[in-house]
């Protein structure tokens, strides 16, 4: 009786917990989650930021647990998953239009749609595609929206590659750098993940600040 119970417990995976996902699926899981979060609307709840950072940390071997990942394959999996997912989301949006988004009853997802629309209107295609990578949910819905709004394929592909590489490789290498410099860094994992998420929002906050400052200057001139 104990064997089936043990096997079941080992198979149980908390998809909201980065460490649980990594323990179950390793590097391949990172690529799959990156693809699902950026390419499939059902993946909007997945922990992309914390997964990348935690995976990078586990490449250093400084954590007390037994799980250890290889940095090279991890970087490849993260980048390929993030880029392929975004392109898939764009193509789905281009073919299905807004029907995919309209069918969802998730309030969080629809809030993300509104924010994605604001991104596209405020920053234009290039900046919006890059900045959306750093905002949870928005990075999921902006790709199909870009397809539905018929953003040129070349424009979307160019800037999603730029944003995807900066986001996926940047967070992974940030986790690796901190794990290499701080002994037993896993003790401080939760606050560090929160810090990394906040840092990842800096490009967005900077653009918001610039936009408000520019708007204030125009009002002052008027």
From TrEMBL:
InterPro entries: DedA-like (IPR032818), VTT_dom (IPR032816). It holds the Pfam family VTT_dom. It is a multi-pass membrane protein. The chain crosses the membrane at residues 21-46, 66-93, 161-182, 188-206. Residues 46-176 form the VTT domain. Belongs to the DedA family. This is DedA family protein.
């Amino acid at each position: 009786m104990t064997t089936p119970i043990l096997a079941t417990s080992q198979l149980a995976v908390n998809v909201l917990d980065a460490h649980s996902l990594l323990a179950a699926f390793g590097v391949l899981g990172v690529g799959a989650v990156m693809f699902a979060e950026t390419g499939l609307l059902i993946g909007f709840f997945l922990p992309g930021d914390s997964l990348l950072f935690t995976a990078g940390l586990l490449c250093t071997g400084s954590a007390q647990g037994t799980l250890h990942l290889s940095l090279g394959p991890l970087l490849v999996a993260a980048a390929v998953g993030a880029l392929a997912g975004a392109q898939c989301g764009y193509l789905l949006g281009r073919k299905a239009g807004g029907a995919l988004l309209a069918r969802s009853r998730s309030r969080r997802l629809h809030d993300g749609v509104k924010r994605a629309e604001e991104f596209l209107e405020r920053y234009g295609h290039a900046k919006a595609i890059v900045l959306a990578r750093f905002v949870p949910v928005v990075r999921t819905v902006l790709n199909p929206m870009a397809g539905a709004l018929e953003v040129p394929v070349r424009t979307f592909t160019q800037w999603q590659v730029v944003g995807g590489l900066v986001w996926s490789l940047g967070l992974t290498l940030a986790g690796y750098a901190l794990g290499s410099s701080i002994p037993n860094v896993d003790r401080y994992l939760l606050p560090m993940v929160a810090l990394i998420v906040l840092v990842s929002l800096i490009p967005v906050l900077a653009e918001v600040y610039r936009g408000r400052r520019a708007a204030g200057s125009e009002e002052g001139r008027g």
